[in-house]
Amino acid sequence: xxxxxxxxxxxxxxxxxxxxxxxxxxxxxxxxxxxxxxxxxxxxxxxxxxxxxxxxxxxxxxxxxxxxxxxxxxxxxxxxxxxxxxxxxxxxxxxxxxxxxxxxxxxxxxxxxxxxxxxxxxxxxxxxxxxxxxxxxxxxxxxxxxxxxxxxxxxxxxxxxxxxxxxxxxxxxxxxxxxxxxxxxxxxxxxxxxxxxxxxxxxxxxxxxxxxxxxxxxxxxxxxxxxxxxxxxxxxxxxxxxxxxxxxxxxxxxxxxxxxxxxxxxxxxxxxxxxxxxxxxxxxxxxxxxxxxxxxxxxxxxxxxxxxxxxxxxxxxxxxxxxxxxxxxxxxxxxxxxxxxxxxxxxxxxxxxxxxxxxxxxxxxxxxxxxxxxxxxxxxxxxxxxxxxxxxxxxxxxxxxxxxxxxxxxxxxxxxxxxxxxxxxxxxxxxxxxxxxxxxxxxxxxxxxxxxxxxxxxxxxxxxxxxxxxxxxxxxxxxxxxxxxxxxxxxxxxxxxxxxxxxxxxxxxxxxxxxxxxxxxxxxxxxxxxxxxxxxxxxxxxxxxxxxxxxxxxxxxxxxxxxxxxxxxxxxxxxxxxxxxxxxxxxxxxxxxxxxxxxxxxxxxxxxxxxxxxxxxxxxxxxxxxxxxxxxxxxxxxxxxxxxxxxxxxxxxxxxxxxxxxxxxxxxxxxxxxxxxxxxxxxxxxxxxxxxxxxxxxxxxxxxxxxxxxxxxxxxxxxxxxxxxxxxxxxxxxxxxxxxxxxxxxxxxxxxxxxxxxxxxxxxxxxxxxxxxxxxxxxxxxxxxxxxxxxxxxxxxxxxxxxxxxxxxxxxxxxxxxxxxxxxxxxxxxxxxxxxxxxxxxxxxxxxxxxxxxxxxxxxxxxxxxxxxxxxxxxxxxxxxxxxxxxxxxxxxxxxxxxxxxxxxxxxxxxxxxxxxxxxxxxxxxxxxxxxxxxxxxxxxxxxxxxxxxxxxxxxxxxxxxxxxxxxxxxxxxxxxxxxxxxxxxxxxxxxxxxxxxxxxxxxxxxxxxxxxxxxxxxxxxxxxxxxxxxxxxxxxxxxxxxxxxxxxxxxxxxxxxxxxxxxxxxxxxxxxxxxxxxxxxxxxxxxxxxxxxxxxxxxxxxxxxxxxxxxxxxxxxxxxxxxxxxxxxxxxxxxxxxxxxxxxxx
Length: 1147
What we know:
disordered N terminus, six-stranded mixed beta sheet, Immunoglobulin-like, single chain
């Protein structure tokens, strides 16, 4: 689980000691409640006042109160001590999957829940929570109207018999922020409603509930919409109302009975392991099928059929189909070839395997055929042709090609629209990523109405047939078009597909699922062309039309479009779209649309935020049921009825929970910390484990990260993990004494022993994760540590390399001026120095010193440093070359016993690096002459990388090093951004010696923009909070005295700081800002004040102000935490307001 294991253990121990044995009776002692106030969205200023008020209610009414913003407290063993949990103005996604499941179990076991105000603005993608809280926030005054968000209003008491309302007047007049709600749970008992005529703005609901309660899923839930303002928590009637809700949620304070919990606990991610069978062994794998004996057949697009032998774990080619897999048109990639493979449901008896492929020849078809595969032999002569599908060739794209069977033995085959998604050449009006609807002569490939929209064409469909022994087939009952329907094909089960690349069928209820790869438009054009592009994960409970090319996403409609005039027509009608294309050979009237299941664009998805953003390629994986498998190592029953979906481009796997009626319920990450390299197929094996096929990260090629793997589940004892091994020094004179430390953990908290592999054949064992050892021989040592638990399971660290006999040089970079910031338009002056303890004269030869500067977008963009890394590695390789036996046979530019290094560089390129490393390590001959190259089997991979980098660099155009001292442009010639970072790198490699390896030292200096991203502020005190609006990080300034900090600030040469403030309307009070070092009460180094005036004359338009605070304190050239303290000049300010940016101005 994603919480500290030591915390869980301590709490569990404490509970056992304090409450003894479980009982279904009332608890001993006072009831206890937990107030939870984490915010992942808007942070309410009233939260501290709410906490204070609830704590006082507890003191006055004999219940205990714990408070937290830490979601890690939401695990079963901890929650069990509380009679009720109070969500106090929580916002956004505050709990992860593990915590959500444990909270569901808590309520199902008899726990209580209280939601206050923004608790309804929380967890929108968790349907269970939505029913618990009773409804989701949708609007309040001031969002979509010009009215203030806080107003006086009138509340009607609906149920005066309830303890939370019996004392209230009706109407009850009070001032608050009035929420409107969506997705209301109709089973709640409404206590109070809001008179919508008593205030202005917000979304009218008609019947407008504002407080309610209900028994829910074994527990008790109370919600009240009030509580936005600080004053709410000083109102006697409001607090009495809240108190009664808390007491209802507490109930009789009984011990929780977790045997009643229906939700299952989520298995921890470390119980799953990706076990790789093959890596880099495939050339464009497409689909696989797992045989009953766990052998796996893998189809490759170019026609090969490979078999992974489960017993020997070897891969061999067992067949090859002669396929069309590349076009004859320059610049056009074909996607056809061998596209799909699936075993017959009765494979154990008949040995049948079905494939979908594009046979070579003049006929433009794709073919579904059946072959026999027995005794590891693919019988090419056994082919039985089932079905041919016309497909236009020498164009791109969209093949589909996935094959699946349902529980009744019906075969499903997915087919793409065989249409080109790119723009037409030499055309004024083009697709631009919207629906391809071009029916002009010569543009047929740009009209998906000829295929997907054509009821008489099999392309852009999912077919369902029942194959007979002789290869003919029947049409099952319930397909989209009955046999004999004019202008249709009866094989069609689903129509309106673009590229249904991977399909899956629920083996219990027969529901069909598929991933629909969508179009590329980046923005909506709803009045002219239609919606932006979406990928879809779809579900068909019965035959249906899913809309393409007339609709996409949640059935968003495209428009008719005239490619001659550029004039848009009407939007297509979802109740019955018409196919009026001249390329249509089928019926004009098409079936009404079926509903979408999951859909998401390139950007963030409002409906399904878990999918993230970026490139997209949706796929459907298996639906799991534990009772269909007998293996002891099958997946746990937590995943029963869930479908695994995945995205090739984004690299994630999600488990989707489906309601009993088939509707979407929730989505959760599966193994989010495991890397997947372009998943192209996923199957559930007969052993109840998931098998995955990875295409690898490259198109139309053999990728070194392609792979075949199995996901293993471990329901018992888990092995320890060693997350880190460190050394107090990595190099030094011989002999060298080093102290190593390991960071290791055991999931079950077992005691561990540590076995240290010292890299020289020697091992040592300790009971603690530390070891001090002296190396007495010159050389490099790769030290690893293995942690073993009491049951013999173990985990091993990566290697920590140390070198005895040479001291790595030290590189320093001195920046003249400010050490925190760069200033756009100004040069940054620097100087680099080198010190080498083994060579006092090192500074006299700096030929291996390489200095570079780059401007990168954010500190996490480490790949921007690759150019520097390559050059540093090459210089290490050059020095290494001079110390090894290589120099006896090779010279840099002249032929010797072996070829010149320069000639080698000219013959090979970077893609041949692995070949060259293998040649150096294993030796060989015949390439450059008769003299064989000796092997170097002991050479380390890091040294091989350096040597090859050096050799290949000889024929590459490289950026020369910057001078030892000088100046660089602050943004390296690029456009400045607030998140941009100037990165200065310097590395130097010493000369080593005879049989002594050269070592490198390096230094990196990072300078931030002088306009800081407000998301980098921290240490909020007294009500400060952060928020993100439209991609911008902002800081909310409270109306009372408070502060926040900015870390690692050097005030050298800073004259002032300018803050950009934003208010709505007029602030009406003067605010004073102070700059202090290291704490809110530290040395005062600047002060300023301002009054925000209403410049716009509007009560709802933003007003921007520039506040400049002079820096008056002395700068010492050191890095400090700079605290910004704000306070109203008069008691009780009129805030809050926003700081949108802060700029440090140079003198």
